[in-house]
Amino acid sequence: MSSDNSRFLLLSINHEHVPLEERESYSVNDDKLRELYRLARESAEIEESLVLSTCNRFELYAKSTADSPQNPLTKILADLHQIDCEEIESHAITEMGQEAVTHLIEVSAGLRSQITGEAEILGQVKQAYAKSQELGGAGKLINRVAQKAFQAAKQIRHNTPIGQGTINISNVAVDLSLKIFGDLNEASVLVLGTGEIGEKTAQSLMRRGAKKFGVASRSIERATAFAAPFNAKPHASDNLASYLPEYDIIIAGIGVKEAIITKDLVRKLKPDYRDNPLFLIDLGLPRNIDPKCEDFDNVYIYNLDDLAKISEDNLAERRKAISASREIALQKSSFIWQNLQKRGLI
Amino acid sequence: MLFGLEDRQWIFIATVVFAITFILGTYSVLKLQRKTASVYTLGLVTFGWVLQTIGLYARGLEYGGCPLANNFELVQFTVWSAIVLYIFVGPAFRVSLLGVLTSGFAAALSILSLTFPGWDSGSREAIFGDNPWIETHAALALFSYGVFGIQALISGMYLSQSRSLKTKELGGLFRFMPSIVELLRINQRLLLIGLVILTVSLGIGRVHWADENTTVDALKLTATIAVWVAYGIIYFLRVRKVLSSKRFAWTSIAVFAIALLSLEAVSSDTPPTEPPAATSIENELR
Fold first, then answer.
1. Which of A155, A179, A313, A314 should we substitute to test contact with B (largest number of B Cβ atoms within 10 Å)?
2. Nearest partner of B236 among B186, B192, B190, judged by Cα
3. Which of A247, A252, B63, B113 would give a disulfide with A190, using CB separation of 3.0 to 4.6 Å?
4. How far apart are alpha carbons B137 and B203 in whole angstroms?
5. Is the torsion defined by CA of B268, B273, B274, B280 positive or negative?
6. Between chains, do B181 and A165 touch, taking CB under 8 Å as contact?
7. Count of CB atoms situated within 10 Å of the CB of B200
């Protein structure tokens, strides 16, 4: 390994190698983070540092001094947590040089996330970088590496399907609603039942622009209580036929022995001649909606299995994109590393 | 000949550009799973349209009028109109993949018109005489066909989206296409636009054929009126909610196919009752 390589170091304790119960002991709160940056600043072997601490990973990137005899990161982490270096070494993986740059790009793009391709990690890395600047960790090298890594991560997310498709079942239902209605402003939503998954789906729809809500429950009191955060109209579920025509999206998750939304009931709505289609989301078990309702052209039904399958398919598509994404990350890190060498930053 | 190339050569190059746009766009979506930026698609389609315009202009100069004398020219003008609609109105619709599909539509029709030499008959004359209103009538009628062509494309997109949602097969083009409600709204709007343009065209023609009714071939007149009535009925039934969304889309595609076939009748050489005086509204399309 060249001496240049050893100037940029990474120590990572993450979900890929370390279980949660051991990983949690390395998480740092704001005080500990400040302390860690102080230790790094005071270390004679570290010139720059960047700490990334999320629920799935603790990572410390650093620029070491030219005459640093070995990886100095274990030592400051041992000092911070008051534990042996050997214990840290048993949990941590270390990378250096271009490999550490590649790692940062892959983490930022979500390639190494527990849920492959999740988007939040890029924001977390950016926040970590901002904190590093605030606490005096980042210098010329970290600045350059971080900014270029963010660009590379964005390029990966844009040019591959790594972040495409939703994984969460509530969000899958929302995505489908958008594919049917486009703008949810004009779609009205009925939540049938007051279960948790129905509530979460309604919340997701609300976040994406749905404004008109109704809630139906066996007990009008429960419907009224559930309706409040959505500014929804409460209904009693035993009188479904009277208010069903008002709604375009129906989230059904009520405890029943047999389907309560039947083909006959839907036929009365004349679904094929409505301006808006009818989107029926069946979250109930046993199912709340008769599958024969889908015989109408303008009616789309998705049950729990359908949503789960879409979620699994999306995840599989993301995983398929990992190899192509890693190739881009490698190309980018090679370019960044050569650029750092040319600029004399390592 | 213009800028060293024959009119058909310009149109051939334009067709190649349309085909490349369609192939690149489709490959990008299906293989690379990302949409080509609309600005590139718009740029390529516009480039193809400019080439096609040069070809049609060269032909117009040669024959001293709007090139609408045979099947080849009618199809080319319909394609040209569809592309005009996409370039100037399409961005307002914000329909993903409309550019790619429009270029596919343009390439397919254009290849068809170039494939059959008989469609581009050699015997032709300055058919519009000196009456610009007749020329306007014919150009507007064909422009409405271009609008109906785009409407048929949007109908196809609607049916494809609806089928994907029904069968729960959400791969391929699905994720890149707009919502079915948006497609349906645009579809209805385009049908109205096409219908208005065709009505204006027929209105202009009516003024002239009232004086020259003996020069109008019955088959041409029937075909043109039938297309107008068919679209009128579809629109009426849709607005009155008698036609379901799916049937509306299928009927739009079917009527457009029939409208294309009717171009054959419109450009046929059946002699009118009396010798043409170059002013018949249908005869000008020969």
1. A179
2. B192
3. A247
4. 8
5. negative
6. no
7. 16
Provide residues of B within 8 Å CB-CB of chain A.
32-34, 161-162, 165-166, 168, 170-171, 174-175, 178-182, 241-242, 244-246
pLDDT of residue B281: 36
- Select which of A16, A55, A229, A245 is catalytic: A55
Calculate mean pLDDT across residues B212-225: 70
DSSP letter assigned to residue B223? H
Cα–Cα dist A178/A194, whole Å:
23
Place of tokens 């789960």: A308
A109-112: long-range contacts (C-beta < 8 A, 24 or more apart)? A109/A152, A109/A153, A109/A156, A109/A157, A109/A162, A109/A325, A109/A329, A110/A153, A110/A157, A110/A162, A110/A163, A111/A156, A111/A162, A111/A322, A111/A325, A111/A326, A111/A329, A112/A14, A112/A16, A112/A57
A309–B181: do the CB atoms touch at under 8 Å? no
* Tokens found for residue B222: 């029937």
The answer to whether the predicted template modeling score (pTM) of the entire model surpasses 0.80 is no
Q: Which residues of A touch B (CB under 8 A)?
A: 158-161, 164-165, 176, 178-183, 272-273, 276-277, 294, 297-298, 300, 302, 306, 309-310, 313, 317
CA Rg value for chain A: 26
pLDDT at B250 over 80: yes
> Are the beta carbons of B179 and A298 separated by less than 8 Å?
no
**Distance in angstroms (rounded) separating the CA atoms of residues B21 and B275:** 46
Three-state SS string over B78-139 comes to: HHHHHHHHHHHCHHHHCCCCHHHHHHHHHHHHHHHHHHCHHHCCCCCCCCCCCCHHHHHHHH
pLDDT given at position B266: 63
Asked if A70 and A47 count as a contact pair (C-beta separation under 8 A), the reply is: no
A112 CB neighbour count, 10 Å cutoff: 21
Q: Which pLDDT tens digit goes with each residue over A287-335? A: 899 999 999 999 999 999 999 999 998 899 899 899 999 999 999 999 9
Query: What is the 3-state secondary structure of chain A?
Result: CCCCHHHEEEEEEECCCCCHHHHHHHCCCHHHHHHHHHHHHHCCCEEEEEEEECCCEEEEEEEECCCCCCCCHHHHHHHHHCCCHHHHHHHCEEEECHHHHHHHHHHHHCCCCCCCCCCHHHHHHHHHHHHHHHCCCCCHHHHHHHHHHHHHHHHHHHHCHHHCCCCCHHHHHHHHHHHHHCCHHHCEEEEECCCHHHHHHHHHHHHCCCCEEEEEECCHHHHHHHHHHHCCEEEEHHHHHHHHHHCCEEEECCCCCCCCECHHHHHCCCHHHCCCCEEEEECCCCCCECHHHHHCCCEEEEEHHHHHHHHHHHHHHHHHCHHHHHHHHHHHHHHHHHHHHHCCCC
Query: Interface pTM (ipTM) of the complex?
Result: 0.76
- Omega within 30 of 0 (cis) for the link into A19: no
CA B48 – CA A97 distance, rounded (Å): 49
CA distance B45 to A229: 49
